[in-house]
Amino acid sequence: MTRRSGKILACLIYLLSNIGCQIEQPNEIKENLPVYRVRKTPTPVVIDGRLDETAWQGANTITQFYLFRPVAVPHLPATRARLLWDSQYLYVGFECDDDDIWSYSDVNDDPLYQGDVVELFIKPRRDSLAYYEFVVAPNGAIYDAHYPSRGAGLSNRFGKWNAGARIASALDGTDDNCHDDDQGYTVEIAIPLTAFSNLEQPSSSAEWTFGVFRYDFSKSYVDPLMLMSFPQASARHGFHDYEQYTPLRFDE
Ligand SMILES: [Ca+2]
Ligand SMILES: [Ca+2]
Ligand SMILES: [Ca+2]
Predict the structure, then answer these.
(1) What stretches of 69-160 show up as alpha helix (H) in DSSP?
(2) How many Cβ atoms are within 10 Å of 148's Cβ, its own excluded?
(3) Domain boundaries of the chain, sorted by first residue
(4) Confidence label for 71 from pLDDT (cuts 50, 70 and 90)
(5) Could you give the percent of the chain with pLDDT greater than 70?
(6) What distance in angstroms lies between residue 165's CA and the mean position of ligand 1's atoms?
(7) pLDDT band at 14, cuts 50/70/90?
(8) What is the fold of 36-250?
(9) How far is CA 51 from the centre of its chain?
């Protein structure tokens, strides 16, 4: 072996050993991320599409959304998302400003994200590849799925799973009519905790992670907006990039 080929071999060994180090772990959650605390509601939330319960007023509100695609737009529509829980349900509330509301379909488990939707992705365990997706259109249709992993085949294979969630929405505007100017819509979701496995029940010590998202199609944009609750710095997998999700703590 010449000195030159020896150097090349050493370089190859170095590169291969580093590729080995990059093999994906189940959930390499980044440290020091801000934690979202889910308040426990002492009274049941009425699922009517209106977030007027006192409990919602006391819930932590996510107002900072980041543009995933396209690269830049002059103005983002306001989006507010909140989570609550009690012994039976995980509640999710969304309020979306939207000047052109469009629900793609009213059939559950259709690819609703081809129109306006709000989304919750939630990953209960760090030592498992599994996670859940909940997508709701302004008309209240839902796509939900439990993925055993990111690589097992997403909606085509796992969309048939149903959480049994209760959903209501309220529109301030008209659905699928681009000739008027809408104000927005709200969505209220109650996901039964039984939808999650017995190994994945909320508690004050559970370390779940989550992201909230939104697609907004509008007559006002060149391209539909994809919004996410965390910066897109290295979001290789789009909304499925659970390594970037926000840690979540259930308050008792
Ligand atoms: Ca819209
Ligand atoms: Ca489903
Ligand atoms: Ca409209």
Answers:
(1) 155-158
(2) 13
(3) 36-250
(4) confident
(5) 86
(6) 23
(7) very low
(8) Immunoglobulin-like (2.60.40)
(9) 19
pLDDT in tens, 143-164: 999 999 999 999 999 999 999 9
Distance from the alpha carbon of residue 156 to the mean position of ligand 2, in angstroms: 10
Token duo for residue 94: 């969304």
**What's the gap in Å between 216 CA and the centre of ligand 1?**
4
144 Cα: distance to centroid of ligand 3 (angstroms): 26
Distance from the alpha carbon of residue 92 to the mean position of ligand 3, in angstroms: 24
List b or e across 6-23, with b for residues whose CB sees 16 or more CB atoms inside 10 angstroms: eeeeeeeeeeeeeeeeee
In order, the DSSP letters of 179-248 are TS---EEEEEEEEEGGGS-GGG---TT--EEEEEEEEE--TT-SS-EEEESS--TT-TTGGG-GGGPEEE
Task: Kindly identify the ligand whose nearest atom is closest to the C-alpha of 141.
Answer: 2
Answer whether 246's CB lies under 8 Å from 33's CB: yes
| Per-residue model confidence (pLDDT) at position 234 | 64
Structure tokens, 16: 């291969």
Could you read off the pLDDT of 220-245 as tens digits, one per residue? 999 999 999 988 766 688 899 999 99
- The pair of structure tokens assigned to 40 is 């426990």
Pseudo-torsion of CA 155, 158, 161, 163, nearest 10°? Answer: -60
What pLDDT shows up at residue 232? Answer: 72
> By the 8 A CB rule, do 166 and 189 touch?
yes
Check whether 22 has a pLDDT greater than 70: no
SS3 158: helix
**How far, in Å, CA of 21 to CA of 25, rounded?**
10
